[in-house]
Write a structure and sequence with these properties.
Blueprint: E1 3-5, E2 29-35, E3 47-52, E4 57-62, E5 67-68, E6 70-72, E7 75-79, E8 83-84, E9 91-97, E10 104-110, E11 115-122, E12 124-125, E13 131-134, E14 137-138, E15 142-144, E16 154-160, E17 168-174, E18 179-183, E19 187-188, E20 198-201, E21 206-211, E22 219-225, E23 229-231, E24 236-242, E25 249-255, E26 258-265, E27 272-275, E28 284-289, E29 295-299, E30 304-309, E31 315-320, E32 325-332, E33 337-343, E34 348-353, E35 358-359, E36 372-373, E37 378-393, E38 399-409, E39 413-418, E40 432-434, E41 446-448, E42 457-458, E43 469-470, E44 480-487, E45 492-497, E46 501-502, E47 512-514, E48 520-525, E49 536-542, E50 547-548, E51 569-576, E52 585-595, E53 600-605, E54 610-615
Antiparallel strand pairs: 1-13, 2-3, 3-4, 4-5, 4-8, 6-7, 9-10, 10-11, 11-23, 12-13, 14-22, 15-22, 16-21, 17-18, 17-22, 18-19, 20-21, 24-25, 25-26, 26-27, 28-29, 29-30, 30-31, 32-33, 33-34, 34-35, 34-36, 37-38, 38-39, 39-50, 40-49, 41-49, 42-48, 43-48, 44-45, 44-49, 45-46, 47-48, 51-52, 52-53, ...
Length: 616
């Protein structure tokens, strides 16, 4: 099959409307992968791939420059044509592979046709260093006179649009009034021929003109080929993950006799090498590779997760947990070895200490071993293995630095769990009281019925001007309003949070009170005048977290819709800040996340929590 440089692909589209000018790139983006800068990659910047659940296309992003990859190396105006698998496919997980010869191949799990799709992106690199793609071809149309009436219409100006036409068979049929097209992997197109007999459809990637008489049922047949192929892997592929050294693709697939099987896939051929032997009741659901080449697998039915070291005889280690898990994120290194997990269908995250072989207690103020409650379903976890500077400082006012786990939340946010602290990373101020009502002058709380001579007060703290101590561990205190109401029958104050609910114990005057999980602490100082039934204190709490909500400027407003963020993926960027003689080099991690509810992919700076780029 002929090859052509990326810069020449646009020539195939001349004479047709520009398919790169469509409204919106994504239709429920679901899966991501990144090809980092390396000797194996034909690009000098990290390249991201994002698959939509609908439409059968994979967008290609130049992550460092914050735009879709350009077709021409000399122009960024025309975005690169996506990888087309067929409009009727339902793409799930994807895996990009760079074997070392300058080529890039993307594998995609297709649930609609229960197959693995192999899509070439770069098939060669020219002598001048330009990446080349496979040219999409189309066969000559063959006409079928369905009723033998002798009709002989002509189909001319036939084009297959690169990036939109996939490998499939086509039938162009006359319905008695118009011509329409049906693809074996794109289904029936919505487009029809116009009054001049012209047909143009970006969903299937076809354009042509039909002239001449025809009767109902008459049709043409032809085939398009963009270099993609289907691979029968013996089941329905569910999840793919490429090893750091590109030597193996781990794949979870569903077979007729087993809903979830873990296998090794040869990235060069796309063929299944062998099964990874797990217990019969194991159900692998999500997985991720650590930097040292170990695979960690979340189990959705057995109360455990799996650590697998690939080899001739794979080493499989079970780590037992109290419950099945939906996702997993390892952070391994010389100082600590932890794995963050999310219980299946749960709203909390937990940290497993690999060295101790047990869960860490993330809140010592509560009885037992505890995780961190997110108050939202967990949609995905992603390891940020490269240390980065956090907004918070220690007691000596030195900025903290470390690794973290990105956590996508169903409520439309992302937070970061610090490796060393076991707490969510805080913003510059940290957890604190905030104005939720009209406060008493100079204080961080309000009192009803108002200013009463000799009435009770919240005792000021010795270290600051506030009266309420908010737990400094990010994630324990949340955004909510607290209400303290005096109950004369119990001679104590009922404590209730708008999210935390009524607390188990009463607050008694002149004694320090600590809420059930240690989120807030205070002392109600009695006054000369006895407290009366119904009197109330109220204060608000700001969780003080470094969070991602769609703010891209730091002004506190949501600039980008951030509805239903998916599984996050961290990658590394190295860039210079200026063009001067002295060029400071910045080497930092970024997080890429599909935001399915907003039909975009967000590039997030974990140093600030800002959405640096939104790919639409």
């Amino acid at each position: 099959m002929a090859r052509q440089p990326l810069s020449l692909l646009v020539l195939a589209l001349m004479g047709c409307p520009n398919p790169n000018e469509w409204d919106g790139t994504f239709d429920v983006p679901q899966a991501l992968d990144v090809v980092p800068v390396s000797d194996a990659s034909p690009f000098k910047e990290p390249i991201g791939y994002a698959a939509s659940l609908h439409g059968g296309r994979i967008a290609i992003m130049n992550l460092r420059e914050g735009r879709f990859l350009a077709d021409s190396p000399t122009s960024s105006i025309v975005r690169a044509s996506p990888l087309a698998a067929g409009n009727s496919r339902v793409l799930g997980s994807i895996a990009a592979v760079t074997p070392g010869d300058g080529t890039i191949t993307v594998y995609a799990a297709d649930r609609a046709f229960s197959t693995l799709v192999r899509l070439p992106h770069v098939v060669a690199v020219s002598e001048s260093g330009i990446p080349e793609r496979t040219e999409t071809t189309i066969t000559e149309p063959e006409f079928v006179d369905a009723d033998g009436s002798g009709d002989a219409p002509r189909l001319t100006e036939l084009r297959a649009l690169t990036g939109f036409a996939a490998t499939e068979d086509w039938t162009v049929e006359y319905d008695g009034n118009e011509w329409f097209a049906v693809g074996s992997r794109s289904g029936r197109t919505e487009a029809r021929t116009d009054e001049d007999g012209e047909f143009y459809d970006t969903d299937g990637g076809l354009s042509f003109t039909v002239a001449g008489t025809a009767t109902t049922g008459d049709h043409f047949t032809m085939s398009t080929d963009n270099g993609s192929t289907e691979i029968d892997v013996g089941g329905v592929p569910l999840h793919l993950a490429t090893s750091p050294d590109q030597s193996t693709i781990a794949m979870i697939l569903s077979r007729a006799d087993d809903p979830a099987v873990l296998v090794w896939l040869d990235p060069m051929t796309g063929q299944v090498d062998k099964d990874v032997v797990l217990p019969a009741d194991a159900t692998p659901v999500r997985m991720t590779w650590s930097g040292d080449g170990r695979l960690f697998v979340a189990d959705g039915s057995r109360s455990s997760f799996w650590e697998i070291v690939p080899g001739e005889d794979d080493t499989v280690i079970e780590h037992v947990l109290p419950w099945p898990v939906s996702d997993i994120a390892p952070l391994l290194g010389p100082d600590s070895n932890t794995v963050t997990v999310a219980p299946l269908s749960g709203t909390s995250v937990w940290v497993y200490d690999m060295d101790a072989g047990a869960l860490r207690d993330l809140n010592s103020l509560e009885a037992g071993v505890n995780g961190l409650e997110m108050h939202s379903l967990i949609r995905g976890l992603g390891s940020i293995e490269q240390p980065f500077l956090w907004p918070e400082v220690n007691d000596d006012q030195v900025g903290l630095r470390g690794r973290a786990v990105a956590i996508s939340l169903h409520r439309g946010a992302m937070v970061f769990l610090g490796e060393d602290t076991g707490c969510l990373i805080r913003d510059g101020l940290g957890p604190r009281t905030s104005a939720s009502t009209t406060l008493t002058a100079g204080l961080d709380y309000s009192f009803a019925p108002g200013d009463i001579d000799g009435g009770p007060e919240l005792q000021p703290n010795s270290t600051n001007t506030r009266s309420v101590v908010v737990n400094r561990c990010g994630g324990i205190a949340i955004n909510e309003t607290w209400n303290l109401r005096y109950d004369a029958n119990q001679t104590g104050w009922i404590v209730e949070g708008t999210v935390s609910g009524v607390q188990d114990s009463l607050a008694y005057e002149d004694r320090r009170y600590v809420s059930d999980n240690g989120a807030v602490s205070f002392v109600i100082q009695s006054g000369i005048r006895p407290s009366e039934d119904g009197w109330q204190f109220q204060f608000g709490v700001n969780s003080g977290l470094l969070g991602v909500t769609g703010d891209s400027t730091g002004d506190g407003t949501r600039d980008v819709s951030f509805s239903l963020p998916g599984d996050p993926m961290a990658y590394r960027e190295v860039k210079t800040l200026t063009d001067n003689l002295w060029q400071p080099v910045v080497d930092q991690p970024y997080v890429l996340v599909p935001v399915s509810g907003s039909d975009l992919v967000a590039k997030i700076d974990p140093l600030t929590g800002f959405v640096e780029v939104a790919f639409w």
